[in-house]
Design goal:
The complex is a heterodimer of chains A (about 525) and B (about 300). Chain A is built from 23 helices and eight strands. By secondary structure, chain A is mostly helical. Chain A has three domains: about 1-135 and about 210-290, no CATH class; about 140-195; about 335-500, no CATH class. In chain A, the strands form four sheets. Chain A has a two-stranded antiparallel sheet. A two-stranded antiparallel ribbon of chain A has the order 3-4. In chain A, a hairpin with a 5-residue loop joins strand 6 and strand 7. The radius of gyration of chain A is 27 Å and the shape is elongated. Chain B is of the alpha/beta class and about 300 residues long. Chain B has two domains: about 1-35; about 35-300, LarA, N-terminal domain (Rossmann fold), CATH 3.40.50.11440. Chain B has helices spanning about 5-20, 25-30, 45-55, 90-100, 120-125, 125-135, 165, 205-220, 255-265, 275-280, and strands at about 40, 70-75, 105-110, 135-140, 145-150, 160, 170-175, 175-180, 185, 220-230, 245-255, 295-300. In chain B, helix 1 (about 5-20) packs antiparallel against helix 2, helix 3 packs across helix 4 (about 90-100) and helix 9 packs antiparallel against helix 10 (about 275-280). The radius of gyration of chain B is 19 Å and the shape is globular. The chains are: A mainly alpha (about 525), B alpha/beta (about 300).
């Protein structure tokens, strides 16, 4: 009975999660109108590590606090009843063939070591939690890989039927397509760098369920580990009555690997409160109830392992800081951060690489980095103008950022924020190099007084004919680095005008002009 | 009304009453002799001047027949609100849509292929809301409906264009008057860039010839130039209210070159200052000779 209520709760939270995910998309207004950050804001691990790395409290933290309180009172309810990734793991686990009693895993301490590593490194100012946090991982994987895949597959099916142009079938499929477009498909095909890598990683994590059900939750999930620690002294406890004959059935259905068959020695911190054992027990020996007396086995991680994890977390910080990219003036010039991003060091301490900004970016210009921001900045957002520019009057990326790595700008602020500066390549620009008119960059430049101005110049072409051409120049004071000039430059291949991060408002050093 | 005009119209009306139905074309020719080449209406609100301008051209029934599918093509190119004069005035679009329905149109389609993100431009311009409220079918362009078309112009040989424009019974072009870096102004003919697919930025290399090629290929039934607000600098996108001038004017006509020629005068230019108007005139797409035209000016 309780198992079914749990499943219902899981389904509802998964649907809520997916609905919010699909709502993380512009419908034309500059506000989304839905609390799309909800799940990330409810993640206490993301909150804690961000506070540790930045040494500053921030709001909102209410939901995260609620999750901690629930866990302290009841145990890992979040993992068993709410977590959308956990639910996906349950679904993927259905594909596993049951054969014989599975060996209960002994490596459950892995996730605690990962947690210790993340906590220690964040205390030293290195925020890597987003890489392994289940919610961040899920949103990133869905946004950058799974959803683009889904969109592409669906569209190609409907496009094929459309080209057949059959009397009834095509009409039906077009009707269905229009419906899907309204609620389930992206406005345009999303394209992301590293979609393949991120997708493979995600499907590999799901595939681990074939080896052991909820493998991720048992051995890897740092949020699970954190909540496990919180649940050590939970008031809701499991008790097994005398009638238990030790059939071991409960151990087979336990998704957390909490060793429920060892009665008083069950691993409380591994219990997901799924209620499988309660429902299954043929003798009805299992019950959950509130009691003050601590029960369950002590969590033994091994001193050496804990010291190892602490050492790794400590060493990782200076090791990653030796990257030449951290040297002043040596940052990758292509690293154009979204408008409103904090100064780079602060940005990396806050960015949890959840990918929400990339999902919501209306031009698809925000892309995940690989090594442009260093290994510690992997999968953080970067504007690639050739893929999409930064829309002048759009502030969505700041609105969806859960930690404030990208500030939520007003439109007035946005107009003053510079993310880079455009410069012209005279060797490729048509009016400069090829005696041909163009000026598309000037046409599309969005600043009220255009940052691209032109000079009318007499130019001789090959035959010696004198032409009057307008040659573009960039006004360094006015350019905000939005990159629409680069995006629309008709010189394909290497564009004749391109943006690099120089001049970005957030940096003190990466400047060209005297203040 | 002068006596001569009175006699003429009496004669036409009398003839109309006495002629059998089969001679309608003759009647139309006779009536056409009276119609202005351009109607320039000034005043407020925008919906009223649109009605007045179309009325003086002979009413929307002259252009739209019962059961027609009509495409109304505004400029929805930019993520700007109406007061910045970067997109066609939404009230002008809504008025034109209503006139089409009053003339018996079955469906009126409104779309553009914007430069900025369509979701934002459709909304910020106010056009999607205004046109839908007037009963139009407002849609984003569908990439499947851009098909390579043989334009056979002097500059453009073939280009992917939006098929819905060519499948419609009638096409009404409703641009806004703005400055532009390459073509100096963007008026009616330049508005057809909004049905081009592909890397259309390339046509700026031979902008004037290309615009005339497009205009000769598309040939709208009617052009209504929105000059309720015009953008006098930093076009075509603007962004500063200091560059916007309020003229409260619309110009309507069937000759795309003549409408653009008149548009030039709003910015203190001569029609021949605009390359695409000059070339359009030379290639007999229309006339830029404003002095020789019957221009009816209406002030409300």
């Amino acid at each position: 009975m309780l198992k079914h209520i749990r499943r219902l709760s899981q389904a509802l939270f998964l649907l809520l999660f997916l609905w919010l995910f699909l709502s993380t998309e512009s419908r034309g207004a500059n506000e989304l109108g839905y609390p799309v950050k909800l799940f990330l804001e409810a993640d206490p691990l993301l909150y804690l590590t961000t506070v540790l790395s930045t040494r500053r409290f921030y709001t909102p933290f209410l939901l995260a606090l609620v999750v901690v309180l629930i866990t302290v009172l009841l145990g890992r309810v979040f993992c068993g009843w709410i977590c959308p990734l956990g639910t996906l793991h349950n679904l993927a686990g259905c594909l596993k063939k049951e054969r014989g009693p599975g060996k209960p895993g002994h490596l459950y301490f892995g996730k605690y070591l990962l947690l210790i590593f993340l906590l220690v490194s964040s205390a030293f100012g290195l925020q890597l939690t987003g890489l392994a946090d289940p919610l961040s991982l899920l949103i990133r994987s869905l946004s950058l890989a799974v959803y683009p895949l889904f969109h592409s597959a669906v569209v190609s099916v409907f496009d094929t039927v459309y080209t057949w142009d059959l009397p009834v079938l095509t009409k039906c499929s077009e009707f269905l397509y229009a419906l899907l477009k309204k609620g389930f498909l992206s406005f345009q095909q999303p394209h992301f760098q590293q979609a393949l890598l991120l997708g493979l990683l995600f499907f590999a994590i799901l595939a681990l369920n074939l080896r052991e059900k909820r493998f991720w939750c048992r051995y890897l999930c740092p949020l699970g580990a954190f909540l496990g620690l919180c649940s050590r002294y939970a008031l809701l406890n499991r008790s097994v009555s005398e009638v238990c004959d030790g059939c071991g059935g409960c151990a087979k259905v336990c998704p957390g690997g909490a060793a429920p068959d060892s009665k008083e020695k069950w691993r409380k911190s591994e219990c997901l409160l799924c209620m499988n054992c309660d429902d299954l027990c043929p003798r009805n020996a299992v019950s959950f109830g509130f009691s003050r007396k601590p029960s369950g086995a002590a969590l033994d991680l091994g001193k050496r392992r804990v010291i190892g994890a602490i050492a790794a977390g400590t060493v990782a910080v200076p090791l990653l800081n030796t990257s030449p990219l951290k040297k002043a003036g040596a940052a990758d010039p292509r690293l154009i951060r979204p408008p409103g991003s904090l100064e780079e060091a602060e940005f990396l301490k806050k960015c949890i690489t959840c990918g929400q900004c990339m999902k919501v970016c209306i031009t698809n210009g925000l892309q995940p980095t690989l090594l442009e921001a260093g290994l510690d900045g992997i999968w953080s957002p970067m504007l690639v103008p050739r893929i999409g520019y930064c829309e002048y009057r759009c502030t969505l990326c700041g609105q969806v950022c859960p930690t404030g790595a990208i500030r939520d700008l007003t439109l007035e602020e946005k107009a003053t924020v510079r993310i880079g500066t455009a410069m012209i390549d005279k060797g490729r620009c048509l009016p400069f190099a090829h005696a041909t008119p163009c000026i598309v960059c000037q046409e599309v430049c969005p600043t009220p007084e255009k940052a691209i101005w032109f000079e009318t110049v007499p130019v001789k072409n090959r035959t010696g004919r004198l032409l009057t051409l307008r040659q573009p120049h960039v006004d360094l004071e006015l350019c905000v680095g939005c990159g629409i000039c680069e995006a629309k430059c008709p010189v394909l291949g290497r564009p004749a005008i391109s943006v690099t991060s120089i001049g970005e408002s957030r940096s003190r050093d990466n400047q060209l002009l005297l203040p | 009304m002068k006596r001569r005009d009175f006699l003429k119209s009496a004669l036409v009306t009398g003839a109309a009453l006495s002629l059998p139905a089969g001679l309608d074309p003759v009647l139309n020719v006779l009536q056409a002799a009276e119609r202005p080449d351009l109607a320039v209406a000034r005043g407020t609100p925008p919906a009223r001047i649109v009605r007045a301008a179309i009325g003086s051209l002979g009413g929307m029934k002259r252009f739209v027949s019962r059961g027609d599918i009509v495409v109304v093509k505004p400029n929805i190119g930019w993520d700007r609100t109406p007061e910045y004069a970067a997109n066609t005035n939404p009230e002008v679009i809504a008025a034109a849509v209503r006139l089409c329905f009053e003339a018996g149109a079955k469906q009126v389609k409104v779309f553009d292929h914007p430069v900025n993100d369509p979701r934002r431009t459709y909304r910020q311009s106010g056009i999607a809301a205004a046109a839908s409220a007037a009963g139009a079918t407002v849609s984003f362009t569908d990439s499947r409906k851009f098909k390579d078309m043989r334009i056979n112009g002097t500059s453009l040989k073939s280009w992917p264009l939006y098929t819905e424009v060519f499948e419609a019974d009638k096409v009404i072009n409703i641009p806004i008057a703005k400055t532009h870096g390459t073509s100096r102004l963007t008026l009616g003919m330049k508005n057809w860039m909004g049905v081009m697919g592909g890397w259309r930025g390339r046509i700026h290399q031979r902008i004037d010839e290309s615009l005339v090629d497009l205009a000769m290929f598309i040939r709208p039934t009617l052009t209504i130039l929105d000059a309720v607000r015009i953008l006098t600098d930093n076009g075509p996108q603007g962004g500063s209210l200091a560059d916007v001038r309020r003229l409260n004017m619309v110009i309507a006509g069937t000759d795309a070159v003549a409408v653009d020629a008149f548009g030039a005068t709003l910015f203190g230019m001569k029609p021949a200052d605009l390359g695409f108007v000059r070339i359009g005139h030379q290639r007999r797409l229309g006339s830029m000779d404003l002095a020789a035209m019957n221009i009816q000016r209406i002030t409300l």
